[in-house]
Amino acid sequence: MSKFVLVTGATGFIGAHIVDTLLARGIRVRGATRSLEKADLMIQARPQFSHLLEFVRIGDFETQTPEGLEAAVQGVDGIIHTASPFTYDTKNNEKELVIPAINGVVAILDAARKTSSVKRVVITSSFASVLDVNRKGPPYFTYTGADWNPLTYEESIDPATSAVVAYRGSKKYAELTAWNYIKEHTPGFDLVALCPPMTFGPVVHPVENVERLNESNAMLWKIARGADPLPVSRVPFWIDVRDLAVAHVNALLLEGAGGRRYTPAAPERFSYGIAAQIIANGFPNLSDKVTQEDQILDQSYGLDGETAASELDFDYHSFEETVKDLIAQAVSLNTV
Ligand SMILES: NC(=O)c1ccc[n+]([C@@H]2O[C@H](COP(=O)([O-])OP(=O)(O)OC[C@H]3O[C@@H](n4cnc5c(N)ncnc54)[C@H](OP(=O)(O)O)[C@@H]3O)[C@@H](O)[C@H]2O)c1
């Protein structure tokens, strides 16, 4: 269906993998970014695809009408919208997390509605918009794409709340805004939302040095450097970034995915204790540093990653492969 695709957040961890998955299928890509410097690095790193890859500069989503979006959507058949702030290092959660996440969705959908070419928009939501932190097993239950985080908007923007809670609110209210937008405006495109949990794996976006790894991978590197005690994961679910990229591209291309909300997640559960074991066994030079700690793996509830895999036609990496591939790359980034 789509032969020319706009990817927002294209210089980010997940976005850059989506760019590569599209390019590998011969699909023309326009990336959107606030930084043309990062755009140049993306293009320079892919000389074989210079005829298929271009970038446009867009404004920060902290402003209500970020510049450049109308130019960004011109002529594309599909949009994969991954751009959204993902950091827990904030001073003002509402300004830095919640507002830009929502503004970004509205701005991209408004721009898409003004063209006739866009047929589908895929948005990267998060398991954070699905998870109810107060719901506990037993009895055992399984989250699916039908579940929503019950957090209120007021709770997410409360200045007393943590960045973790505000991030959950940013993802919930940005995604909800997108579904409501479709109901209200019935535009000429449909929507697919992907709600992945923690995403790990090797990076293909510009990263200056290992200290600048994205939020989720930075946790694994922290363990490799000897975090003591180990961090405790809030949920036992994860996905490899390469699998998530294929899920996004297939969500854009497969006719039947329109209007669907998926929770792509690997079948294997993870803990940072398991990650520590994989790092210690796989990297003898790091094994003295890595803290070994048995962490309880929460088995009291599940997350349906099967529906996404079967309907969007992709397989899951093992946690061991994902951790080893990221740490091998992080070690090389660390010594350069
Ligand atoms: N990593 C995970 O574990 C995980 C799990 C579930 C869902 N997600 C979601 O996946 C998406 C991508 O995350 P990621 O891990 O790839 O993060 P990332 O590496 O930080 O990339 C996010 C991109 O979003 C853009 N962005 C951030 N804040 C922005 C703002 N205020 N205005 C405009 N653009 C902004 C940035 O692009 P430029 O700097 O180039 O403009 C950045 O490259 C996010 O929507 C995130 O919520 C991530």
UniProtKB/TrEMBL annotation:
Residues 5-254 form the NAD-dependent epimerase/dehydratase domain. The keyword ATP-binding does not apply. It comes from the Eukaryota. Gene3D superfamilies: NAD(P)-binding Rossmann-like Domain (3.40.50.720). Keywords: Oxidoreductase. One of its GO terms (molecular function) is oxidoreductase activity, acting on the CH-OH group of donors, NAD or NADP as acceptor. The keyword Oxidoreductase applies. Belongs to the NAD(P)-dependent epimerase/dehydratase family. Dihydroflavonol-4-reductase subfamily. This is NAD-dependent epimerase/dehydratase domain-containing protein. The lineage of its organism: Eukaryota, Fungi, Dikarya, Ascomycota, Pezizomycotina.
